[in-house]
Amino acid sequence: MAHVVSKATLGLTHPAQIDHPKISFAAKESDLVEWKGDILAVGVTEKDMSKDETSKFQNPILKKLDSQLGGLLSEVSSEEDFSGKAGQSTVIRVAGHGLKRVSLIGLGNGSTGSSTFAYRGLGESVATVAKTSQANNVAIALASSEGLTPESKLATASAIAKGTLLGTYEDIRFKSSESKKSVLKSVDLFGLGSGPELEKKIKYTEEVCTGVILAKELVNAPANVVTPESIVYFMYFCVTYLSCEFIVHSGGYNIKTGPGCSIEMMKCDMGGSSAVLGAAKALGQIKPSGVEVHFIVAACENMISGTGMRPGDILTASNGKTIEVNNTDAEGRLTLADALVYACNQGVDKIVDLATLTGAIVVALGPSIAGVFTPNDELAKEVVAASEVAGEKLWRMPMEESYWESMKSGVADMVNTGGRQGGSITAALFLKQFVDEKVQWLHIDMAGPVWNDKKKAATGFAISTLVEWVVSNSSS
Asked: What predicted TM-score, i.e. pTM, was given to this entire model?
């Protein structure tokens, strides 16, 4: 592969090499109100915010902190109508207590099912407050952590750390001037335990986040920077401890026009590949024992050329099945089909494929949830369980076999797209044609959550889920 790497080009734009600042996490068992630093952030539920008849907090931690601040906490929360709902936050500037600011961040009603998302959101909110305040150090605590089991405390610390790390990250590689603002350097975690198990969990979280950030950078970068050749470059120089092989194809090009066509956002169309590469980086550092993992990327340059496919072309997949191309915009599933055949030939037991495959899944599930398609109930349970630990949202979709009728061709074994109705289902049924029946297979259509419109940036979706799934199948 050395000759491929030597030809790698980053196009006309060269991204700056940015050294992202490291954040040091430490567990603290001392009295929270004695902490001194830039920001003391407390995650509170709606129940924590309840007050007695004298408008004083009933929660012991808030009551003690409020007393330390001369009642300022209860006064400001009432004035700002802060009730602890998810997404709410308030920042109070204080003086004379060894603190610069105190922040209350809402966790919602505290239900168990939403805890991972809430705690990750807590970390993200802290990162935002720290960035706005140019804070170097913060302390994070929960108003109510007494009922948490040791395992829950580890998971909570991990979710908070992940939210803080990823919330602090900013992709400025393509900006001509770097930000000179102060950056967050240290985070103290109160009430979530201490010792080697917590340290190990935080290190694991940091390693997962490096994979998420790699995926973010791959998706954020435009097509003149992330080419098939440069993906090989990324693998050899960013994930050097893995052996890899690539399937490289030439694709067709579909001119999208009209409002909402989002042709400039087609750089996101390699979100599945970026998730695989991000997971490869994270798992290469974690090194789970007792499991063999193959990372396969079907990379192609999707440009107009004399070798690009045309509508009506008939292609022969690597397993011998023929495909009539009735839509050149559905090129990703053609390369993915060969990748699935290749994966099955490696003798693996389980396959999870990921792709930003259809707009139909975004219509069905919106921008925050990925669709899961599989004929295997056991594998579905494994991956969905991993996603819940990771704090990412998946929803299992039906594989309605009767819909395959719309995928039949008069001149080949199949066409590459069906009608508009059930488009994500017919796409999954198409992929199924290239999977050995003896192999457990699951497909994730992640076209929605790969990108955050509000932040105008990639999310790094699915890396955390993939890592959790592989680790759950290991003997680590």
From this structure: 0.90
